[in-house]
Task: inverse folding
């Protein structure tokens, strides 16, 4: 049994930016040479999140509209008065979605469905350099 | 330290179908003979999810009504135009809830509360054969 | 590779009570003497949850208002008829948020962002004694 901690960086555009990171994660699983285990992907920071969905343009648009309905960008948030950076909506969207996801793997590949992709959701209102911690544990 | 990867299959009915899988997971923990560790349950596919709640008929109904309020079935979704299978709402509900859950165990049993069950949430609009990956890691 | 299971208890006030538990978790990581790994925090029970956000008064208020908008306290829930304890809203908020979070650590500290705190969300409508299972796995 072995644990590997790695960092991956992504340059994101402003909100909303939904990035399919499945390919990069599968490369890391393959490079680990581990045959069986779990991969934990964790985004550092409080205005981005990790989720899974079928990564196609229609659903990507649906996801953005869903967040806009539940947590509208134009609403007033108390957080906007704390720092004056007007991204209260970004924080709430990230907190509701969650920063981490644990995915099983076998034979060097994540055990995802064919139409199930791991997505980095950038909710901030400006481009960011995002650091992800990718942990691979297994044997 | 050891890691075990197993598959479990469930036949689900159409949306909404909330299935209590706690008993099955506890059997797998007991069968593993591991005394202390964590169980990761991950549902393959993008129209189902894993969650926990008190599995009683009233709350099960409340959960279904909650999803119907936040992500109505009858709304138009862009995804419905991509494939024509009219399950955009299923995808969004699954993405918001998440496909994985990590539960601690000790002495061969999951450390859940008495009124806290692990639930497979089938959000698709038709019966499905669901594959779950159950990973048990511990010693 | 080693796994440590610990219990931590928190006395919570009634809903809403959002408690920053990051300091306590970092102490436990340091005490474990493990250098690299993952920490799983899991709340036992079905009316509380674990999340991450920037723990400052404005955003804490925003989080409470978000839950009140999505899952209002005053609404009627079927669950309230099952037990007569009027906390249907607490169960739904907890189920939507999730009971567990997996956070990576290195050199004895959780790899969180500067403005990213781990928060125990008490959603119940009365003070509770909360038990958290904290699992530290690593080397």
Result:
């Amino acid at each position: 049994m072995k644990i590997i901690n790695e960092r991956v960086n992504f340059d994101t555009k402003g909100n909303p930016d939904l990035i399919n990171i499945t390919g990069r994660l599968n490369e890391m699983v393959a490079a680990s040479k581990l045959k069986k285990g779990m991969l934990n992907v964790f985004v550092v920071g409080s205005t981005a999140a990790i989720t899974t969905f079928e990564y196609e343009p229609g659903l990507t648009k649906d996801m953005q509209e869903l967040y806009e309905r539940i947590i509208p960008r134009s609403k007033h948030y108390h957080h906007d008065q704390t720092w004056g950076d007007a991204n209260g909506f970004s924080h709430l969207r990230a907190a509701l979605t969650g920063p981490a996801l644990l995915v099983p793997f076998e034979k060097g590949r994540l055990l995802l469905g064919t139409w199930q992709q791991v997505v980095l959701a950038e909710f901030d209102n400006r481009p960011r350099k995002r650091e992800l911690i990718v942990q691979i544990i297994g044997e």
